[in-house]
Structure formats: structure tokens, C-alpha cells
Design goal:
The protein starts with a helix and ends with a helix. It is of the alpha/beta class. It has helices at 4-16, 32-36, 41-50, 67-85, 92-103, 127-138, 152-166, 192-210, 213-222, 253-260, 287-295, 315-342; strands at 22-25, 53-57, 60-64, 115-116, 121-122, 141-145, 171-176, 225-229, 241-245, 268-273, 301-305.
């Protein structure tokens, strides 16, 4: 008995004529169950997002739809198949990432580089993420700019861990402003470690996602991995290190300049932040905003700008960000109209 997918495919092919559907052939039948997903959930996900129809016929898959959609779906499926061939699993999140990459024209069929860590191999899930990973591998100073959930810090930590494991650097230093409006820690209970740990928790979470817990603890104890507030960077020269400054929008110009001038021999610095989420006192200049203005165009410094399209958390996060952006634009338009009326 034909399934709804079979019925829709037959109708589409009948209306478009013979030979319109693109045929993909996969040689390893053992991988098809993982490629298609439980109850064909991965195929349904691709159909829904790209408005195509996918019909399996043995080890072949017929893709029907608009020309651009067929091409994108084929790229997506070949990328996921290549992932399975390399021994990597495929999850709904990986399917979503492969679709984003295919839409962005990023090389597929397993050609996208993985960042290899002890616990998992991490692949980009958007064209900007793929660009970001390339820049993290090649540039000495990289700025990752954009909203939460785009992988700015997570991917930077992944590349840092990979370089530590391969011996390309001697240590990883993870830092962020300990408190948004000036690192005021005195009112918190406990010693300095107890005071700063809550603000550095996201960095620890990323580490534990990439290394076994015992290795994280051991490397923290030996100093191979250091997690510290930005204030602790003053006066140091950071040689043979992979340094990540997170939440950099909440640095002052003096703090930012201080860190940028700490870079030592064989070191790399990654600066991440969201210029729409500055928590400094009203009127205070963001060190990140100033650095972007001053350093854009300087040789050897890379800037990767993420948008809500790159958000790889729950799809609801993307919709929430888009709603907030629309509201900000509406308020800005209303204020501009009010200013014009006053004139």
C-alpha cells in the first residue's frame, strides 16, 4: 500500500514529466537506516524544510521538487551520507546543519572538516560556522560576532581543545568579564574561586562536552587549561597559548586593549561577543565595539559576523531572536518618526 510520501511523489512526477526527479544512489545499504532516520524522520525533515519529495527505492532515493530545492536536498543527503561513512552519527540537529550548509553552498559529501576532540567530532552547522572554523585554524586573531546560540564560543573551545591535544599549543586560556558591569565581585559570598565560577560556567560546560571529566580536572590542575576572569590577564604575556575572550561586548576599551596586547609568540586569540547585548553602564564605550571599529581592515585579523540564521539551538530560539529584532526595528522606526515630527 503506497504511503503518503509515495502518493505525493507520484503526483509530483506525473505533473513534471519523466526524468525530472533526481536520483541518488548509495552503495552501502547498511548506512541507509541511519541516513533516513527512525521512521524516515530525517527524510521528512528535509522534505519539510526544502519543500521536496523524497522516495526510496532500494538503495536509490528519488528527489522531486523545484530545481534549486532538489540540488540543495541532494547536497544535504550526500553530506549526511559522507558523515556516516566517516563513522559519525546523524541526528536531527546534524540534518538541520547539513541543510544550512547546502543552502550556503558549502562543500558537501563529507568534505566539511570536523573538529576532533576526545569525546566527539564537531562539524559546522552553517556556512558562517564553516568559515569561522577555517579562520580559527588559520588566523592569529579572530573576532566572532553575533547573537547567542550561533556557536561562537563553543566552536572556539573545540578548536582550542583540538590544538591542545595535537600539541599545536601548550595551553588553553578561557576568559570573560566576570561581572557584566565592571567585575564587581566583592558582594558575593566565598573565596575568589567561588565568586568567579558562576560567571565562567558556560566555558566549563563547553570543556566537559569535549573532554572526559577527569581530563578536564587534571588539565585545570596542571595549568594546561586555565579559566579566569579578564582582570587576571593584566601584566601577563600569553605565549604558546590558545586564548578565548568570551562576552567581549562587556569589556571596557582599556580592558580590550590590555588583552589584545598580551598576545605572545605562537599564540592565537579569539574574541567573541554580541554587540546588541552590551551590559555596561549607560554611556560607557564597549571595548569590543571600539576594537571592531579600529581593527577592521588590519592585515592578519579576521572578523566573522553571525546572524540569527546561524542559531543552532532549538528552532524556537531563531524565531524568538527574529521577533525581538523586528520589535527593535519597529521601536527605532517609531522613534525616528517622533524625532522628525519634533523638527
Amino acid at each position: 500500500m503506497p504511503t503518503p510520501r509515495d502518493d505525493r511523489a507520484a503526483a509530483r512526477e506525473a505533473s513534471e514529466g519523466n526524468g525530472v526527479g533526481q536520483v541518488l544512489e548509495f552503495r552501502d545499504n547498511a548506512l541507509l537506516a541511519a541516513l533516513f532516520g527512525e521512521h524516515d524522520r530525517h527524510l521528512a525533515q528535509i522534505e519539510r524544510q526544502l519543500d521536496v519529495v523524497l522516495v526510496s527505492r532500494g538503495n536509490r532515493l528519488v528527489v522531486s521538487g523545484e530545481a534549486w530545492a532538489k540540488k540543495t536536498a541532494a547536497r544535504t543527503l550526500l553530506d549526511l551520507y559522507g558523515r556516516l561513512q566517516s563513522g559519525q552519527p546523524v541526528t536531527p540537529g546534524d540534518v538541520d546543519g547539513a541543510i544550512r550548509l547546502a543552502q550556503g553552498g558549502v562543500a558537501t559529501a563529507g568534505a566539511v572538516s570536523f573538529v576532533r576532540t576526545r569525546k566527539r567530532d564537531i562539524a559546522p552547522r552553517s556556512a558562517n560556522q564553516a568559515l569561522y572554523i577555517r579562520e580559527l585554524e588559520q588566523s592569529d586573531l579572530v573576532f566572532g560576532l553575533g547573537p547567542a546560540g550561533t556557536g561562537k564560543t563553543y566552536l572556539a573551545v573545540a578548536v582550542g581543545v583540538a590544538k591542545l591535544l595535537s600539541g599545536e599549543c601548550d595551553r588553553i586560556i578561557l576568559s570573560r568579564p566576570a561581572v557584566e558591569a565592571g567585575e564587581r565581585l566583592g558582594f558575593l559570598p566565598g573565596d575568589i574561586r567561588a565568586k568567579i565560577d558562576p560567571y565562567l560556567r558556560p566555558l566549563y560546560d563547553a570543556l566537559y562536552d569535549m573532554l572526559p571529566a577527569d581530563q578536564v580536572v587534571k588539565r585545570l590542575e596542571t595549568g594546561e587549561i586555565e579559566v579566569a576572569p579578564l582582570a587576571f590577564m593584566r601584566g601577563r604575556t600569553l605565549a604558546n597559548a590558545f586564548v578565548i575572550l568570551d562576552e567581549a561586548q562587556n569589556t571596557t576599551p582599556m580592558q580590550m586593549k590590555m588583552l589584545l596586547t598580551r598576545i605572545g609568540e605562537n599564540s592565537r586569540l579569539v574574541v567573541t561577543g554580541d554587540l546588541t547585548q552590551i551590559d555596561l553602564p549607560t554611556g560607557a564605550m564597549s571595548g569590543l565595539r571600539q576594537a571592531v571599529s579600529i581593527l577592521t581592515g588590519v592585515s592578519g585579523i579576521s572578523f566573522v559576523h553571525f546572524t540569527d540564521v546561524d542559531v543552532v539551538r532549538h528552532p524556537m530560539v531563531t524565531r524568538i531572536l527574529q521577533a525581538y529584532d523586528a520589535n527593535d526595528r519597529r521601536i527605532h522606526k517609531q522613534r525616528s518618526a517622533a524625532d522628525d515630527a519634533e523638527r
